[in-house]
Amino acid sequence: MTDLFLEVIRATITAGIFFYLLTTGKRSPEIxxxxxxxxxLLGFGLVLFGTVVDITDNFPSLNRFYIIGDTPQEAFLEKxxxxxxxxxxxxxxxxxxxxxxxxxxxxxxxxxxQEMIYRQSVENASIAVFSIDTEEKIYSWNxxxxxxxxxSKEETTGKPFKILIxxxxxxxxxxxxxxxxxxxxxxSNLELVLLARDGTEKNLLVTLTPVYNPEMEIVRCAFACVDxxxxxxxxxxxxxxxxxxxxxxLAGGIAHDFNNLLTGIIGNISLARSKLTPGTEPFQRLSxxxxxxxxxQALVKEILLFARGxxxxxxxxxxxxxxxxxxKFIFRSTDIETEVxxxxxxxxxxxxxxxxxxxxxxxxxxxxxxxxxKKGRVTVKAENVVDEKxxxxxxxxxxxxxxxxxxxxxxxxxxPFFTTKTRGNTKGTGLGLSIAHTVVTRHGGRITVKNSDxxxxxxxxxxxxxxxxxxxxxxxxxxxxWDTEQPSGIRVLVMDDEEVIRDVVSE
Length: 507
Hints:
Elements: H1 2-27, H2 29-32, H3 37-58, H4 72-123, E1 128-133, E2 138-141, H5 143-149, H6 153-156, H7 168-181, E3 187-195, E4 201-212, E5 218-227, H8 229-274, H9 281-306, E6 315-317, H10 319-330, E7 337-342, E8 348-351, H11 353-371, E9 377-387, E10 391-400, H12 432-442, E11 446-451, E12 457-466, H13 499-506
């Protein structure tokens, strides 16, 4: 009975191994499809057959299970075929199957290593890469994403992707594209605007690609984002500069012709007044008309200064004196508190005195008007700065404690004829800051504006510095000395393309 029990255990183990291999092959085609697997199964089947024959041979009561014959010789032959051939087939099968399995394992290990390298490359990539699953939840988030958007990996993993979407319109458009990606399509060079943690909008160039699992099923959508925010801002700035260039050319041409007409009008008014008695109504009317023409001529002068018609006549200027005099002049007879902070050894600049003076005055007037009606304070600072690529500059900052500039109009603040001033005595022409921008740019500098951390606006001018010293002997004021000796016996040739000007000058 004990022998029968042992034989049954041996047969059970052999059968268990056989059926385990059979079911494993069905569950894992990558194993069963390898060369030699069929021989292994056949070998274990023959061994199982030999074991069953051995049981029936040792126990006559089980002779009815004989498979080939009824004699002991036939039973021996059956066992020999089962054990011997089965062992040979198993041995040959494993000789073929093991190298294939080891090769497969090496490939799996290599794939795992490559996947680890890929993950590390994505994690440390210079561009932002993240992925979302089929439920639109963030699945992966690399370090560049943390820098770009301000969210940590822990804060975003598992969160809805919608936290990055600025509006419903963008979400609807992107959702449609994500649906196509999850079906196998890819998108390249999409220009999208996504939100950072602090609410700022990021202009991005995005590539959308599907992510597959080992079964080659699409399980995620990957985003590769290149930040082009600065590039977009630069393009917008170039477009604005081109618009201003076109407008300045147009304004310069119109202003020149209009100035000629005004000269004729003012000249004729002056001639008419000279023939009237002061104090009479016609005299007063002409005086008012002349004042209006003077105002128009001042506006034309601003337009001509804004236009690029005249290149600056550069001289070496001591900025310290220029800034002090302008602050004193603009804020005289006001209760506005001013502070002037000038670095010791402030570098000189080479510029047109009249134009730079006009630019700084325009910004100071803007600051003055921003703080009127409150306890105003204007701070003017000047310091030396060095740019490794562009050289030496003098940086001038003019800051007020007014209400500041609404963020939505800052991009338009230097546009000509753009003004937020109300009608009345403080109504502006919208050319003051445009002229300042034109003058500074014409001198090879830059001008920017931002709202300061506390309150109010801050204008910053960068002007190229020079090692030259100003010529103290050369006066910056026009000469007011006139030759009082009246010439006689001379003739004057008057030339102008406007007949009205020729007539007025001749009179």
